[in-house]
Amino acid sequence: MEMTKSKLAGLILAGGEGRRFGQPKAFAKLDNGRTFLEACAATLISAGALPVVATLPPESDEPYVESLDSIALPEKGMDMFSSLVTGLRRLDESLDWRSVAILPVDHPLVNRTAVIALANATGRAVVPSYRGKHGHPICIEREVASAIVSGEFPGPTLRDVLREVGAVDVEVDDPGVVANCNAPETLRDALKIRTAD
After folding, report:
1. Which among 26, 54, 126, 163 is least buried, having the fewest CB atoms inside 10 angstroms?
2. pTM confidence score
3. Measuring CA to CA, which residue among 172, 137, 178 is closest to residue 158?
């Protein structure tokens, strides 16, 4: 079974309230009964990521997901970049990783082979592309992650950081990287595309 060549960590950004789903997207379910959070964690872990951290909405009951370290965000309404910094700060406590795959929880259909391809690519930051469209997860090297935590790369978005470090595009054969399942209808559409492929 192919795994990542370098020490990979994982970060799932799952701190949103998920108003369009009527619940946090972390706990929305796929057609197989798995939550988005479980699916994202399983993909990262099966690709060799360890540790894996997830940021969750404030006051969430921390769900048990094997090999996942969950953090409830300190306040409501935190933007994605603040959630990213919170998760990276937790990961920074662990010494045993060289790069991190950052996966928004509304991309639960990503395949492990895409994560492996990104982790094995060369670049300070690596962005997946499917048929010319950018997607997720994004992989960044530890020095970039540490610079985000320290404020050297203040954002205000991850896109700004990627532009600053000169992110590299990697074409992958996985429609899951561009399947943003941020509402029930987009999830249905993404599942249809996956079935058709």
Report:
1. 163
2. 0.92
3. 137
